[in-house]
Input
Amino acid sequence: MAFPVNRPRRLRRNETIRRMVRETRLSPDNLIQPYFVCPGRGVSKPISSMPGVAQMSVDNVVAAARDAFAAGVPATILFGLPERKDAVGSEAWADDGAVQRAIREIKERVPGMCVVTDVCMCEYTDHGHCGAIKSGDVDNDATLELLVREALSHARAGADIVAPSDMMDGRVGAIRTALDRDGFTNIAIMAYSAKYASAFYGPFREAAESAPQFGDRRSYQMDPPNGDEAMREVALDLEEGADIVMVKPALAYLDLIWRVKSEFRVPVAAYNVSGEYSMIRAAGRNGWLDEERATMEMLVAMRRAGADMILTYFATEVARRLNR
Ligand code: PBG
Output
């Protein structure tokens, strides 16, 4: 029945009523806080393109993780910076690497926290690509070996979830097989399934010092105009044993979060990437928009689209805001 019988504004009259009819909620439970772990002690090196985010040594990461967990953030995802880079990124599977040490320390000092690790070669290779290079391109099958070594070393250090972000074909299956063979049947895989070759990763490449030294990532990351292809990537990863699938970036890909959730009904993660973070921070700092409100609106939109989990550099800050 139409106006004047029907007046949708009745249910928007005040905050109490709005609370009662609110359809989507954002809780600290939904958030995953990323950290960039670097070598050294007492290091906190700000990332200029991501105000409020720093590369931190293990001690500082543990302190930050403790605060995040206390604020209600259940999980962190760790990215590592090596002492030295080489052609195959061999420090990625060093048992005493920065990420491996951070995993052990967090599991010891903040035992309730879920530790997710990013499994990729780009921070560890001297050429900045996500795998081994052959004839000017990333060699898929040779890279699987490297990713498996890295994932196993994260598992040995005590990671709860490994998250391959390289976009090689078959990596989820290769990692699942290796984990199971070595007795890590309980470690889950969060697959970066629909990961696009995106300009929104710009600031991350400063943070992780992982910009490709030649070419770009378009021969392995997805082409932004494609949506059906994302469904195929998700189906393949689930077949290979992914427990959680991810859409990345999030903001320009909300339709895909919706499609993945509707089609597969599995746990879906959305990565609110560095560029999405920096846009809001920059505009907020310039006084061009209300940073707090824009952040909440963006994150709740990802939840409304169907994301169960959101990886976001805002996690701890937002969890504290949700608690007040
Ligand atoms: C590693 C990786 C990237 C991000 C997460 N894992 C960068 C890339 O693919 O170039 C981006 C995260 C962000 O922008 O916040 N492959």
Remarks:
- The mean pLDDT is 97.
- DSSP finds eleven helices and twelve strands in the chain.
- Residues 26-322 form a domain with the TIM Barrel fold (CATH 3.20.20.70).
- The pocket of PBG is lined by residues 118, 120, 122, 130, 165, 201, 204-205, 217, 273-274 (CB under 6 Å).
